[in-house]
Amino acid sequence: MKLRCLTDYYILWICILIVTFCESNDINQENLLPGNSGWYTRVPEDYTNVPLGFTTNISYDINDDVQFKIDGSIDTPIVLEIYRLGFYQGHGARLITTIHTKIKKKQPLCAMNKVTRMVDCDNWYATASWNIPKDAVSGVYIGLPYYKNDTLLKGPYIPFVIKNSNPNSKADILFKTSDTTWVAYNLYGGYNLYRGNGSFNISSRAYEVSYNRPFTNRLPKPKGKVQNFLFGSEYSMLYFLEKYGYNIHYAACQDIEQWSADKYQLLRRYKTLLSVGHDEYWTTDMKEAYVNIRDYGVNLVFFSGNEIYWRIRWATKNQQEHNSDKRTLICHKETLDGGLVKNYNKKSLIEINSDWTGTFMDARYGHIPQPPNAVTGQLFMVNAHRQDAMKVHHNHGKLRLWRNTPAASHNPTTKHSFYVTTKGILGYEWDILPESCHNRPPGLFALSHTPMYLREYLLENYGASYKGSGFVSHKLSLYRHYSKYGNNITALIFGAGTVQWSWGLSNHHDFDRDDEKIYTEDVLIQQATVNLFADMNILPTTLTVTDSNTIAFHERNGSLPSPQSKLILNKLPLQSTNPVSIITSPKNYDTVYINKFRQIIVKGTAYGRIGGVELSLDDGLSWISANGAENWHLNIHIHGRDVKGIHMMHHVSLADVNCSNYMTSKINEIHKMVNGNRNDSIKLHIISRAIDDNGWLESNRTSFNDIHIQLKRIE
């Protein structure tokens, strides 16, 4: 008996070692190395009397030389520590190397473009250099400079990315940093894309900003700057993913463009592309890369808010002779200037639609809009500064995203029929899920619902102002994209619609100094993140297999105890559950009587693991979400909207379903009829289709979900 127990014991450990070896990757192995705790500095009051610097590029590959340009006291010994960020047994970073240097002569004043107000320190000379070794692991790295004789005062972090451009090297996840947003908010030299010269007036802003500056985003003023940098939200995500050994590569914004060549071969190495945190500034090429990569079966996860908002472009060497490519970011923000193109020396710097740098969604002034919800499902609406909790109703808790979370087991008979996350998950800016079918991806459905009334926080005029008030709802979203290369190729697209989703993953992030220091980790967010990746066939490596269906995390390799130690992963089938929808009212060939005040009300049921139901009124050319799941309905107002804003949660208008030329013609006919300009009936074709909770669409049309009705006017 004793021998048998020993045999079983050794077999168990052999199995664990085999699983660990087979599942291991560079990230897992890297985080087994000893970490260092001396790297982290609190949010400072200022950056006086410390060395400041930047790298001459934001992204590097193996064997590249990283050039550091640092300003500080002349002939004072400077220590430059280079760290790789990760988990590292809870230390959060590992010291890679230490460089000792001096500033031999005073750095020149940064160049100032008086027309565009761009501050550019490219004229500084290099102070230190580091050759990236062959065994360096892709990741986010920081340089930390300080004077050798004063180790307590440390300069601002100098971030850069080490990417992996080897086409034969694959990973599950590509983590794109939001570095264009860091640059847009960087106020070093007195100007950024929001203000300048000590003024908070938007008219004093710069129209171009440079990467060639030290990042001072972590300064406490103006409020909110810390949320616009690496440690606002991105670091929390990085820390969590590396803790559990997810197989990740990292890239900067410019890499997404550069890797789009040859039919996105380098981007097709990954199962999933991420957008994390405050990911506000995108070029058209970046956006198109995310749009087109879906057709190759690459999933998209937007753990971000206010994403794909301002359209930017890069200055080229011909436009800025003293700059390298992709070191100067141009954003004139025509949306704020009434769409008027800025003219300098009586010459236009941009041309509408080819060089527009207003918001992507702006449909005015001849600009063709490219709203982000066409790819993300989400649309920016709630401006800073918000620190709200998210709610998951018990009806949503039945969806597969919430398996093994408190929302899945929440008792609907209790006083509150929803789970409430920790404060700050919705912040510091967040999005909405538009009800209209305009630019709505087919198959989009909500995973949560957090309604509230906000005063003077809501976006107006495509982003020209943020003083709107009214009822608004946050909703997590999911849809499955069907490839143009065949329906056997699909991709899942998740939209968190909030900058601070990752606050629920880890409490390791910056706070504004005057914000309440809240504990933000939430097991619901942690478990949902693990579930989402599992549904994309992406598994962590620091795990123990307990049975054929369940994988439980355990804290080994010196990991510190944390809430994540109880996370589990149920491996649910990834194929469709064959959802079915039925229209119960009106019936096929019914006559429905309408006027200006009556609604067209469509009701039905659905069967299967239902995520949502959508309806089409134009023969399947466009789709709009119904309310509910197993029991659903859609109320369509004939004229206008409910002035109280309740339509945002329960109703739509004819304008919301006017998403094709066919529907435009049909709506014009309906308006003529209800206004008494025609007395005959109008035929209306209604199709419903169910969406299962993994995004698969109902595939069959029957007389139960494909009906024809007649509309007639009644006084």
Strand order of the largest sheet: 13-11-14-16-29-28-25
Cα separation of the termini: 89 Å
CATH architecture of one domain: Sandwich
Q: How many strand units?
A: 42
What structural category arises from helix and sheet content?
alpha+beta
The average pLDDT value, as a whole number, equals: 85
Would you give an account of this structure?
With 715 residues, this protein is α+β, with helices and mostly antiparallel strands. It has a domain at 580-713: Sandwich (Immunoglobulin-like). 14% of the residues lie in helices and 31% in strands. It is built from eleven helices and 42 strands. The strands form twelve sheets. Strands 13-11-14-16-29-28-25 form a seven-stranded mixed beta sheet. Strand 38 (627-628) and strand 39 form a beta hairpin. The termini are far apart.
What's the arrangement of secondary structure elements?
Layout: H1 2-23, H2 26-30, E1 52-55, E2 59-60, E3 65-71, E4 78-85, E5 93-101, E6 111-113, E7 118-120, E8 128-131, E9 139-147, E10 158-162, E11 173-176, H3 179-185, E12 208-210, H4 234-243, E13 248-251, H5 253-258, H6 261-264, E14 272-278, E15 281-283, H7 284-293, E16 299-305, E17 310-314, E18 328-330, E19 343-344, E20 347-348, H8 373-376, E21 379-388, E22 391-393, E23 418-420, E24 426-432, E25 445-446, E26 450-460, E27 465-474, E28 477-482, E29 490-495, H9 523-534, E30 543-545, E31 550-553, E32 568-570, E33 580-585, E34 591-594, E35 599-607, E36 610-616, E37 624-625, E38 627-628, E39 631-637, H10 647-650, E40 651-653, H11 661-674, E41 682-692, E42 706-713
Parallel strand pairs: 2-10, 11-13, 11-14, 14-16, 15-17, 16-29, 34-42, 39-40
Antiparallel strand pairs: 1-3, 3-8, 4-5, 4-9, 6-7, 9-10, 12-18, 17-18, 19-20, 21-24, 22-23, 25-28, 26-27, 28-29, 30-31, 31-32, 33-35, 35-39, 36-37, 36-41, 38-39, 41-42
